[in-house]
């Protein structure tokens, strides 16, 4: 799908996520209409958007002048004005079921019949607040990384009643904006992003509680260890490249230790042979084992480039 078929977005809620989405859509050359029920917030938000755009420009991350981007963003006084003519309505209201229930009912009544209604919910599922709306088929969650103009991943979480056409159109729309959408196959609280983040945070809290390490030490391990590596490759590729023989070899060597660590926290989820085989097959489909050495070199070169750039930057 090209931008010719999806040139207008409504952003509902002018908090930090709403502002960030307005920037994402404007950079994609879409028309953006933003609404917030708070009059004072509506008055302040243009200055905030300009400030963020100028920061992006200072780092060479804009392809157009700030004024050109701001020219595509309009702050409107009513929900109806925002929704009129929109191809995509991005709801960015606070994380409260009762608020989203009312808001989606209003949007379903006033939005163009073919507009996609997407929520930026961080954990709430579509089914929890859409109910039995006549337009429930066009509703889904689109949960971004924060802020989405810097972190491009976005999770699309359809409900069982969301139509396949809506999911496919949403994929195209967010891809057109330069984002990297994934489709979460089942509705579950927290989706993928926050479940992965939550797993790390739970263990981090436990390590502090048990006197194993300090808060700053744990941040150091993630920032200068796990996070540094994960900025180049994800956790599956990490262990795939860390062990000669690939991820199947890693699971054989380290699986029992991870099983014991999980059981220690009351989570007994062993990596069964069938599960390891499934994961290993997915990795080998992406990277044949014959290309393993070449990919390790690629990883190291990317880490070198990243470290070089980090060493050059000094942000205090």
UniProtKB/TrEMBL annotation:
Pfam families: 3HCDH, 3HCDH_N
GO biological process: one example: fatty acid metabolic process
Residue ranges of domain 3-hydroxyacyl-CoA dehydrogenase C-terminal in the record: 190-278
The EC number(s) this enzyme carries: 1.1.1.35
Transmembrane segments: 6-26
GO MF annotations, alphabetized: (3S)-3-hydroxyacyl-CoA dehydrogenase (NAD+) activity; L-gulonate 3-dehydrogenase activity; NAD+ binding
Domain of life: Bacteria
Keywords, sorted A to Z: Membrane, Oxidoreductase, Transmembrane, Transmembrane helix
UniProt keyword Transmembrane present: yes
Domain 3-hydroxyacyl-CoA dehydrogenase NAD binding, first and last residues per copy: 9-185
InterPro entries, A to Z: 3-OHacyl-CoA_DH_CS (IPR006180), 3-OHacyl-CoA_DH_NAD-bd (IPR006176), 3HC_DH_C (IPR006108), 6-PGluconate_DH-like_C_sf (IPR008927), 6PGD_dom2 (IPR013328), NAD(P)-bd_dom_sf (IPR036291)
Similarity remark: Belongs to the 3-hydroxyacyl-CoA dehydrogenase family.
NCBIfam families hit by this protein: PRK06129.1 (NF004783)
PANTHER family referenced in this protein's UniProt entry, alphabetically: 3-HYDROXYACYL-COA DEHYDROGENASE FAMILY PROTEIN (PTHR48075), LAMBDA-CRYSTALLIN HOMOLOG (PTHR48075:SF1)
Entry protein name: 3-hydroxyacyl-CoA dehydrogenase
Source organism per UniProt: Paraburkholderia madseniana
């Amino acid at each position: 799908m090209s931008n010719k078929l999806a040139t207008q977005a409504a952003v509902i809620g002018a908090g930090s996520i709403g502002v960030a989405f307005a920037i994402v859509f404007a950079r994609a050359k879409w028309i953006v209409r933003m609404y917030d029920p708070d009059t004072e917030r509506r008055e302040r938000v243009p200055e905030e958007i300009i400030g963020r755009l100028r920061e992006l420009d200072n780092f060479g991350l804009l392809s157009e002048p700030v004024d050109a981007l701001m020219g595509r963003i309009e702050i409107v006084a009513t929900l109806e004005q925002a929704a009129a003519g929109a191809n995509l309505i991005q709801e960015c209201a606070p994380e409260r079921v009762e608020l989203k229930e009312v808001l989606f009912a209003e949007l379903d009544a006033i939005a163009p019949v073919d507009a996609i209604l997407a929520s930026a919910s961080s954990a709430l599922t579509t089914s929890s607040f859409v109910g039995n709306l006549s337009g429930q088929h066009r509703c889904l969650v689109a949960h971004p990384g924060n802020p989405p103009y810097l972190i491009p991943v976005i999770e699309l979480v359809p409900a069982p009643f969301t139509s396949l056409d809506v999911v496919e159109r949403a994929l195209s729309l967010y891809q057109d904006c330069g984002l990297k959408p994934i489709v979460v196959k089942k509705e579950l609280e927290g989706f993928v992003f926050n479940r992965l983040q939550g797993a790390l945070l739970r263990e981090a809290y436990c390590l502090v509680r048990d006197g194993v390490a300090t808060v700053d030490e744990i941040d150091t391990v993630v920032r200068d260890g796990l996070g540094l590596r994960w900025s180049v490759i994800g956790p599956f590729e990490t262990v795939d490249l860390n062990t000669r023989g690939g991820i199947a070899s890693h699971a054989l060597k380290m699986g029992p230790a991870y099983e014991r660590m999980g059981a220690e926290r009351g989570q007994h989820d062993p990596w069964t042979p069938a599960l390891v085989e499934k994961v290993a097959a997915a990795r080998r489909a992406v990277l044949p084992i014959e290309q393993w050495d070449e990919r390790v070199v690629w990883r190291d070169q990317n880490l070198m480039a990243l470290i070089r750039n980090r060493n050059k930057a000094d942000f205090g």
